[in-house]
Amino acid sequence: MAVDPRRIGDSTAITTIGVTTADRPEALRRCLLSLSRQLRHQSHDVRIIVVDGSKRSTNEGLGRSIAQAIGTSTGCDIAFIGRRERRDIRRRLISICSGDLIDFIITPGASGNRNIAILLSSGENVLLVDDDVVCEQWKVSSFRNAIEVSGHVERRDLGFFRTRRAARRGMDRVTASLLDAHGVLLGRSLESLSTSKSPRVDATRACRFLVEGLAGLRSVVVRTTFSGLTGDAGASNPERLLFGTGKWKELLLSSRDVYDTAFKYREVRRVADRYLVIHDVACMGFCMGLANSSMAPPFLPTGRNEDGLFGMTLSAVDRAAVIGHIPYAVLHDSARASRYGQYAFVSATQTRVADLMIHLVNAWTPSTRAARPKQRLSRLAQWLGELADLDERDLATAIVETVFKARERELTSIDAALRPGSGYPEHWRRDLKRYRDTLVTNLHRPEFFVPIELSDDRSIRRGYARTREYLRMSSACLAAWPALWAEARSTVRIA
Fold first, then answer.
1. Which of 42, 275, 291 is nearest to 179 (CA)?
2. Structure pTM?
3. Averaged pLDDT, 235-251
């Protein structure tokens, strides 16, 4: 039986949930059961698309059986995308671009799985959920049913904990609809939010951009929404906390115990106590709403921090886009231990593909004032293609300069923190000095600038050649994406 996309016009309702999974059938079972409980009281039809990137065929088979059994027992509309279905999607899109490029876009992994979910929900609002998320909802005691348009300031409740259970201590379990909560903000223009009576809008902390959006002087739309988080922070190491500012810095300065907990344990609480609209590019996709009724960019496969790159790209190509936080946390109940391994300032020892791409997109300035997201995406694709076409020396120079400028900003931040009277305690200063010394040492190593995922231990030159090919494929991916998105909307169905 075919599953047709739901077309909802200007409605903010989420009609598709995309669950991405790989080799974790039991985590998938728990996630789908939690989602089925969420959908029991939903007033409109919602489908779940499970996109499985398992390397082991036995795990894919288990995932398929689990999805089918839960769909049958709960009445939920659950479609499963495995190897067979992925090949069918590839066949249907091959008229748009080459098979190699389609493989780059939808290859099994976090980015490819999400791209399939986005293509299959083109024209709709979609909720993207990782398989190790349990969609129970928790709120903090200071919860208020209000919308705060708060510019660039961190306004969420933050905390670091030694255990997953402790991260939920003092929070209340709630039965509010996860989809409805995202729908309060997702896809809404700020002008439409400004007329809301319940929940009411507080704009006293709004930046000028958001104030103009509320007044209808410019188009501003909440393109992504994020659930709060309790449980695993989702980071491989905590070292970015060294550069924390605002509320993050205040929390880390509050006591040595808080600081040590943050750097030794991955258990956190990050949740708003009211609906928040932020003029920011931050993106963490464990439970993310995406307004996909108009084209959003694809996820590029980087291995790490693919959602961070997605957020930066969305902001670069859609100048009207802002993000929203809902005042409920879901449980990120990963299989990882609560304690980090001993951190060794990994980001000071290597450049990752995601780092390079984020630095490039952040540095990009379109040559013309393209207004529409499709136009800006095309300009970004063209620019990345021009980088890939540089000769060997000029490409290496462009990459080194881009990475070096970003790292210079880190060193400037560290120097400011180490000045007398900066207020940083000795233990924090000591870690910053260690990070600085590690980074300065590595900035003198030519191989440091080649992304670690693309490096070749035998030859820096071959590493740059692989980086060139990645840039070329990324350029082609962004250029082809609008046509792929439109084609999927009109022709691709799930059998």
1. 42
2. 0.94
3. 93
